[in-house]
Design a protein that fits this description.
The structure holds two protein chains of two kinds. Chain A has 18 helices and 30 strands. Chain A is α+β, with helices and mostly antiparallel strands. Chain B is 33% helix and 11% strand. In chain B, helix 3 crosses helix 6. Chain B starts with a strand and ends in a 5-residue tail after the last helix. Classes of the chains: A alpha+beta, B alpha+beta. Chains A and B meet through helix 2, helix 4 and helix 16 of A and helix 1, helix 2, helix 3, helix 4 and helix 5 of B.
Chain lengths: 729, 169
């Protein structure tokens, strides 16, 4: 049976709080954790399949043009080489998240340096890698390949544009105004597991083990790319070694492995090298952002402007949505917002953890720090004075709003010293020490989701969906939701994920996974409870279940009489999406040390306070938050994609040259989970937390750098050379 | 010359192809996929294993160079039924998220604690000689070759500190 529920109204029933098992929200260890810490959890490339050949991608060494010829004979005589695949169906870019159609295909047309153009298949990885390096390719180069986003006429993203009132006039009239331009560099997801696929055909049936965040979309993308029926494809992604947006859309190795396996009539494994992952998957666009504020004498905004220039390849729909939270986080009746995208021939730009706010919020919150200084008030107080009652553009109510609580509780827990702030107040030896803060905001997303829950005759439960766990905690929180509803300890609930044979989930992305698939599991469990109540001679709302028994002492096995109960929950967000502005909110506080002589910044301590609806597992939720804060540190201080201005190739395409934070860069981190119920966010009153932790945190660090040493920077990352250049005498 | 590599106590014949890295030997030739390939260039630490008691990046060394050596991988440290103290501490402190860097973190931490016990100094040490103290900063410095993109560092350090202190803190 399928139970469909479309959520048009906020949930006010608080049913989950009325359940008796008491496991939801608790800090339970991950149910798949033992497999991960003992190395027994299999990731995409790690399935042993007899007769599997190894494929290595060959990538373009020109920026734009055409592959004129590929000399197969240059490698086919090498030991172990089986085939050179350059099928026209090979994909040349990863699909954008939720594309739901084939990514760009046709490897002969080159649009960026590093684009896949062929696959060499051999008996062993070493043979394939060697042959891939020796493959002779002839190109025809197209000279016109713009690479600088500032050198082309950009396209306006009209659905982002807001003209409200007269910002220029408001700024001219206001006692305080700010007009600053802030830049951010490109970023890489750099998930630890490289993109990988093993494809195997059985007649016209294709099975692929792959590392994907959204099998529910990816199966459609693959079917479209191969011109197949979805029913003939099975995707398996049980363990995903990190995604951060890079595995949202179908990536090139999946299509290549499938085509190669078909061609040579053997299973084929393709694992992208680290350098290929950097160059062929997704970059976060660099941004140039102009922030303009007009404020009255008390710091209340009368005008708010945020314009951003981002870039992408021709033909891509994605434009880094840097203004996403700027539309609603602060008031100001005179508003100017505009997003423009420059078409250039760097690698594909797409979603990297928290697309939009990851770079938009640090820019906004840097500018807010400037405003606080101009007005002469505490930066926390400045934020508190500018929280709008309703969405300032759409005039909608907020589904819930915890920004003020997060600011206050965070300041208290951090030991924030209130008042007007002056830089350079504390020095220890070579080090200036200071503090800074920023607001956090991440717009909430929710998606259609399906999950099957089976209460087995033995009193255990099974949850099945193609939803993934990319380190987010899906396995565990679904066991907790089902356990809570059905009166079971989570270890009595088996959760099977990442297999398209199961009902379609929402996929992991945009922080929508837990609230969407959790709602589907809730709906399925509710239907099971109704059947159980009937068997127990009561009503669902009176049915109390805990530890496998009813309040009257009947065991689930007794009630079930040898028969399973299986229900598929089908959740779809309805009017709640249109009737409210929904977001996770929070606040960051950081203390840094800045070296007077070298410009090096070290983060001494950092705290984040976050309100994101119901907490499903305090431990995994906190882990998402510390992960986000860690990314904030990288974004603030070290992470920057560097492209060669001559040919657009990504120069720092590995983990030695692209500097993600390492252990010593990250101090102990404090996280406050500001608990709330947001019934308009999802049926389980939860929002997402995978991204909020990096939506503004970099500005807390940047603002702390200014407070410490007086260097006011408007360019991220704030590397030592930049800090030194801005350091006052 | 034994023409074998001993992995977790079992001797395996060396691979024929001299290009095979120790990492690919473990993963592809003898099926021990607990050791992860994150970068293949010694930049991420996901492939950390313990060779003759010393932690190394198994991607940066060829299997052919390990004739007669004894290799311990994550599978040799503990099992789901009998996890090691560090494996258990990682689980309890949520010292991982996606889990891909985790075997490398745990192998690295296992050998790192031995290095501390043997008073090997690090950049974070106050002195190059004498007894090394176990501090968060020492652990962070010594673990900095093991990247975790999920950002579980704070929890990883807490897990290692607990084991270094001799059990539950």
């Amino acid at each position: 049976m399928t139970v469909y529920f479309k959520q048009d109204e906020p949930d006010t029933s608080n049913r989950l709080d009325g359940m008796k098992q008491g496991v939801l929200g608790k800090s339970l260890s991950r149910v798949e954790g033992l497999a991960k810490v003992t190395g027994t959890a299999p990731y995409a490339a790690e399935y042993h399949i007899d007769g599997c050949a190894e494929g290595v991608l060959v990538t373009s060494t020109i920026t734009r043009g055409e592959v004129v010829s590929i000399d197969r004979t240059s490698v086919l005589s090498m030991p172990g080489v089986i085939a050179v695949v350059d099928d026209e169906k090979m994909s040349t870019r990863a699909a954008q998240g939720t594309a739901n159609e084939a990514p760009m295909q046709g490897p002969r047309q080159v649009c960026y340096w590093g684009q896949p153009i062929a696959l060499v298949v051999a008996e062993t990885f070493e043979q394939a890698r060697d042959a891939a390096k020796h493959l002779k390719v002839e190109y025809r180069e197209d000279a016109a390949a713009p690479l600088d986003p500032h050198a082309v006429e950009p396209e306006e993203q009209e659905d982002e544009t807001v003209h409200q009132g007269d910002l220029a006039h408001a700024m001219a009239e206001a006692p305080h105004s700010v007009d600053v331009t802030i830049t951010t560099k490109g970023h890489a997801s750099a998930a630890m597991e490289p993109h990988a696929a093993i494809a195997e055909w059985d007649g016209d049936k294709l099975t692929v083990h792959a590392s994907l965040q959204m099998p529910n979309y990816n199966i459609t993308e693959l079917a479209d790319a191969l011109d197949m029926e979805e029913d003939n494809i099975r995707l398996i992604s049980r363990f995903v070694g990190g995604g951060f947006g890079s595995k949202l859309g179908l990536s090139e190795e999946v299509v290549a492995a499938a085509l190669a396996a078909k061609q040579i009539e053997r299973p084929v494994r393709v694992v992208q090298s680290r350098q290929q992952v950097f160059q062929t998957v997704m970059r976060r666009s660099e941004t140039t952002q102009r922030l303009r504020f007009a404020a009255d004498g008390e710091g209340r905004l009368t005008g708010f402007g945020h314009e951003a220039l981002v870039s992408n390849l021709p033909g891509e729909t994605f434009a880094e949505p840097a203004l996403q939270s700027s539309h609603f986080i602060y008031g100001g009746e005179n508003r100017e917002l505009m997003l423009k995208v420059a078409r250039i021939h760097l690698m594909t730009a797409g979603s990297v953890r928290a697309p939009g706010e990851a770079v938009g919020m640090p820019a906004l919150e840097s500018a807010m720090d400037v405003l606080a200084e101009k007005v002469g008030i505490d930066p926390v107080e400045l934020r508190l004075r500018n929280i709008p009652e309703r969405d300032p553009e759409k005039d909608l109510p907020f589904s819930s709003h915890k920004l003020a609580e997060c600011l206050k509780q965070g300041a208290e827990a951090f030991g924030w010293q209130k008042g007007v702030r002056k830089p350079r107040q504390r020095r220890e030896g070579e080090w200036w020490i200071g503090t800074g803060m920023a607001s956090a905001s991440r717009s909430h997303s929710i998606a259609e989701a399906k999950a099957r829950v089976t209460l087995k005759a033995d009193g255990t439960a099974l949850v099945e969906t193609d939803m993934t766990d990319i380190g987010t905690g899906t396995y565990t929180i679904l066991a907790q939701i089902a356990g809570e509803m059905l009166g079971l300890q989570p270890d009595q609930v088996l959760v099977e994920l990442g297999d398209t044979r199961h009902p379609r989930g929402p996929g992991s992305g945009g922080s929508w996974g837990a609230s969407s698939i959790g709602s589907a599991v809730y709906i399925a469990c509710n239907a099971i409870r109704e059947e159980l109540a009937e068997k127990a001679g009561t009503s669902e709302d009176r049915l109390e279940l805990a530890d496998g028994r009813t309040a009257a002492g009947q065991t689930l096995a007794d009630l079930l009489q040898g028969k399973d109960i299986s229900q598929e929950g089908h959740y779809e967000p309805g009017a709640i999406e249109d009737d409210f502005t929904a977001a996770g909110f929070g606040a960051f506080f950081a203390q840094v040390r800045v070296n007077h002589y070298t410009g090096e910044t070290r983060v001494d301590r950092m705290l984040g306070a976050f309100g994101f609806g119901r907490v499903l597992n305090a431990s995994t939720a906190r882990s998402q938050c510390i992960g986000g804060i860690t990314w904030s540190i990288g974004l603030a201080l070290t992470e920057a994609l560097e492209f060669d201005p001559r040919d657009g190739h990504l120069v720092n395409c590995d983990l030695a040259e692209y500097h993600v934070p390492v252990h010593r860069d990250v101090p102990d981190l404090d996280v406050l989970l500001v608990e709330e119920r947001d019934g308009a966010a999802s049926q389980i009153q939860a929002k997402g937390i995978g991204e909020l932790g990096m939506c503004g945190g970099a500005a807390a660090i940047g603002n702390a750098i200014y407070n410490a040493c007086g260097a006011r920077l408007f360019d991220y990352p704030m590397t030592p050379d930049r800090v030194l250049a801005a350091m006052p005498e | 010359m034994t023409d074998t590599i001993t992995v977790n106590g079992t001797a395996h014949p060396m691979p024929d192809d001299p290009r095979v890295s120790l990492l690919d030997f473990l993963r592809q030739h003898i099926g021990l996929t607990g050791t992860k390939k994150g970068c293949d260039h010694g930049q991420c630490g996901a492939c950390t294993v313990i060779v003759n008691g010393i932690r190394i990046n198994s991607c940066l060394t060829l299997a052919a160079m390990h004739d007669g050596d004894s290799v311990t991988t994550i599978e040799g440290l503990g099992t789901p039924d009998e996890p090691s103290a560090l494996q258990r501490a990682f689980l309890e402190h949520d010292g991982f998220q996606c889990g891909y860097c985790t075997p490398g973190q745990i192998c690295s931490a296992t050998a790192m604690l031995e290095e501390l016990a043997a008073n090997w100094p690090s950049d974070a040490s106050e002195s190059l000689e004498g007894r090394m103290s176990i501090s968060g900063e020492e652990i962070r410095e010594r673990m900095s070759g093991n990247l975790c993109r999920c950002g579980a560092y704070a929890n990883i350090v807490a897990a290692i500190e607990e084991v270094a202190a001799g059990g539950k803190s």
